[in-house]
Amino acid sequence: MYSLSRSLALLFSFLRANSRRLFLTCALILAGVFTLLVASHPAGYAGGSDSSGYLNSAQLLSKGLTTAPIRPVLAPTAPKLSTPYIYSPLGLKPKSDGSLVPTYPIGLPLQVIPLAWITGWAAAPLVTVGLNALAGLWLTFLLARCWALSRGWSLLGAVILAACPLYLMFSIQMMSDVPALTWATASILLAWKSRQRTSWSIGAGVALAIAVLIRPSNALLFIPVACCLGISWRRWLLFGLSGLPGAFLFFWYNKVSYGHPLETGYGDIWGLMQLNVWKSSLQNYATWIPALLTPLVLFAFGLPWLKSVPLPVRFALATWSVGYLVFYTFYYFTHEVWWYLRFILPCFPALIIASLLVARQLTSRFGLFSLASGPIAIVTSFTLLIGVLLNGRYWAKKHGVFNSSLDERQYADACAWANTHLPPGAVVASMQTSGALFYYTPFSVIRWDVITPRDFSTLAPAASARGGLYAITFPFENERAFQAMPGRWTLIGQIRHLEVRKYDHQ
Predict the structure, then answer these.
(1) What's the Cα-to-Cα distance from 424 to each of 379, 383, 441, rounded to whole Å?
(2) Which residues on adjacent β-strands are paired with residue 483?
(3) What DSSP designation does 82 have?
(4) What percent of the chain stands above pLDDT 90?
(5) Following CA atoms 360, 366, 372, 378 in sequence, which dihedral angle do they give, to the nearest 10 degrees?
(6) Each residue of 59-117: pLDDT tens digit?
(7) Which residues pair with 498 in a beta bridge?
(8) In Å, what is the CA distance from 340 to each residue of 313, 329, 336, 395, 427?
(9) Which residues contact 12 (CB under 8 A, 6 or more apart)?
(10) Does residue 251 register a pLDDT over 90?
């Protein structure tokens, strides 16, 4: 017994003496594991509306273009179709001049382009989002340190975010949610650091501009950023001047693409804000935020009463988190499924840091433990860390977070199959795969979900004469698709869940 006690005492003495080195080792291991998870489950393909929309936009911008020409099936002299959306893949929309314009903001596509020059277009999507994901963890750690959390507490905050199934899910897909979080956190961190060195406010202005270019709703960050900047006119001047180029780009692109500086590709966003969904949205929050961020997040409710934390920090954290939560409470999609909470991902660092500030205060007050030193601290820290990782693993496995790798790849595989097996001049009817087909293939694409019987009777013979009419659909599309396009369709191929059919024109 004496020997065991002495051994434990020596072990804890060694851990205390080498705490900095052990902390760095632990942080590097966790970062390596996260990187391996992301790299081994690549889902950075042009798939559905979002991912294909961003990548089609990136390729256009890389050529100095903001619009793409349509790929018509009918001759210019043929009767007009009922809607120009027939030729508009998901992620693109028709303009009055007959061209197509991306519907998504340009902040993420602009990040893809320089990386595509280095890695190639195939790898660039995963590299872009993966780097943003790693940066998001690092920035969350740094911000927690800036707001007086110890290395241990700050690392725990980064681990909570890294283990969050929602964060993992959108760290491997070509989506804007994780980059939106990363640049939101960067803008808050740099604004706060400007209190120590005024020049940091330049970075804050640039970061906020990029955050808004990635997702316009990141304009909600203005109030928490203002809390961090304080009342110094020098900081505000540098912040404003550095953000001007991004604001100019935002307004210019909207004017050129959509006809008005304040009009985005989303169209009338207020049409998707509905008062009657607030109860179900709050239920979704209450159910899933504690599951995704562990029940520790509930400590965040105590932040307003935490007088040991400076008022500007409390106000910044409160306005950062509440701004997103309230805004998206009325967004129509928020209440539907757990992964639609991706829209509030940019405020997850605020929720995590607020909860840890309260947890630290409570544990210190009641003498439970401190994530700083001592045998009890080491054991408790390790236990908390394991609990967070197990929680993340449970929910990630339960909801098949990494299944998106195969799910997204089938879009690219189906397009590769089409490039190999379909004749030149073929016309492909699709809906869910339309954006991917526009990105990966040269074929004309028609949207079955907006076609009318009269449109189809005009398009079918013209497509058959050109190179044949084909359809690439998921099973969930088939009933409606082939009601909209009646006739004899023969199954000629299947790529995972996607089915390829040929239309027999008689």
Answers:
(1) 65, 61, 10
(2) none
(3) S
(4) 79
(5) -110
(6) 999 999 999 999 999 988 888 899 999 999 999 999 988 899 999 999 999 999 999 99
(7) 495
(8) 28, 11, 7, 15, 34
(9) 374, 375, 378
(10) yes
Tokens at 131, concatenated: 């780097």
How does residue 458 score in pLDDT terms, banded at 50, 70 and 90?
very high
The one-letter amino acid code at 331 reads Y
What residues contact 19, with CB distance under 8 A and at least 6 apart? Answer: 373
Extract the tokens encoding 31: 């970062």
The HSE-up count of residue 359 (CA atoms within 13 Å, CB side) is 25
Q: Which two tokens stand for residue 384?
A: 């908390």
Q: What is the dihedral of CA 395, 401, 403, 408, to 10 degrees?
A: 160
- Share of the chain residues as helix, strand and coil, in percent rounded to the nearest 5: 70, 10, 25
Q: Which of 112-116, 382-386, 428-432 has the lowest mean pLDDT?
A: 382-386
Instruction: Using alpha carbons, list the distances in angstroms from residue 435 to 199, 222, 480, 483.
Output: 42, 34, 19, 22
Rounded CA-CA distance 300/307 in Å is: 14
Per residue in 168-222, pLDDT tens? 999 999 999 999 999 999 999 999 999 999 999 999 999 999 999 999 999 999 9
- Residue for token pair 């027999």: 504
Report strand pairing: 469-473 vs 427-430: parallel
